Amino acid sequence: MDPPPVLSERKKYQRFRPRKFICELCESGFTLKHNLQTHLHTYHPDNRKYWPRRRGKRYKCTQCQMLFRVFNAAVRHRDRAHRERSRPKCNECQKEFPSPSLLREHNNVVHLNLRPFKCAKCSAVFGRQACLRRHDMTCHQDFRHLCPYEGCTHIGFKCTKALAAHIRSVHTHVRPFKCEQCGKCFVRRNDLRMHADVHNTDSVYSCPACAQNFLRKAQYRKHAKKCAQ
């Protein structure tokens, strides 16, 4: 009698699989097309031109426009997404969380500054196990998210936000982050934040060494490094 087959261990760090499906409206990346479709319907309900066709789904949520194949799935969605529930709140910063476990993790990492997860290959410590995994993959295993477009010769990116910005600037030319004051659009959210300093004339960054003023924080930091030398 042959011995029973040995079950293969679960692939380590499955969350670091290549994220080929990128949302064109934000900086989120997904490993499955279904997850991207769910993300679009959940977080971008007003941009329906980006919604893919969803065939065979005839049960509609009574509170929103989401469709489901099974009636019980529509009921579960309604109870989870639209029913008001008391969310646990942090006593220090009043931030709310969907579960008590996330609240405990927030207190340990943010307020108690606990770092129980240590890297076995260097001296880095982290408050969350997910951060330790990300550190190991990006720093010690040189993991990179590759561009899903054929013919792209980029070597890859260490985070999905950089990959999403690359796709928008090089391949799709989508600029989803728009300035409310002048209408200028940007590829990255951080570029919009830096641009906002141009309109905010109340906050001026002054160099303590030479008293020179700057409107943008990035320019002030660059000047401060040179001025301190």
Could you characterize the architecture of this molecule?
With 229 residues, the protein is mainly alpha-helical. Among the domains are: 21-82, Double Stranded RNA Binding Domain (2-Layer Sandwich), CATH 3.30.160; 86-142, Double Stranded RNA Binding Domain. Helices cover 36% and strands 9% of the residues. The chain has seven helices and ten strands. It has helices at residues 33-43, 71-81, 100-111, 129-140, 160-172, 189-199, 217-228; strands at residues 21-22, 29-30, 59-60, 67-68, 117-118, 125-126, 177-178, 185-186, 205-206, 213-214. Strands 1-2 form a two-stranded antiparallel sheet. A two-stranded antiparallel sheet has the order 3-4. The protein has a two-stranded antiparallel sheet with strand order 5-6. Strand 7 and strand 8 (185-186) form a beta hairpin. The longest helix has 13 residues, at 160-172. It is globular, with a radius of gyration of 23 Å. The N and C termini lie far apart (77 Å). This is Zinc finger protein. It comes from Gongylonema pulchrum. InterPro entries: Znf_C2H2_sf, Znf_C2H2_type. Residues 21-49, 88-116, 117-145, 177-204, 205-229 form the C2H2-type domain. Keywords: Metal-binding, Repeat, Zinc, Zinc-finger.
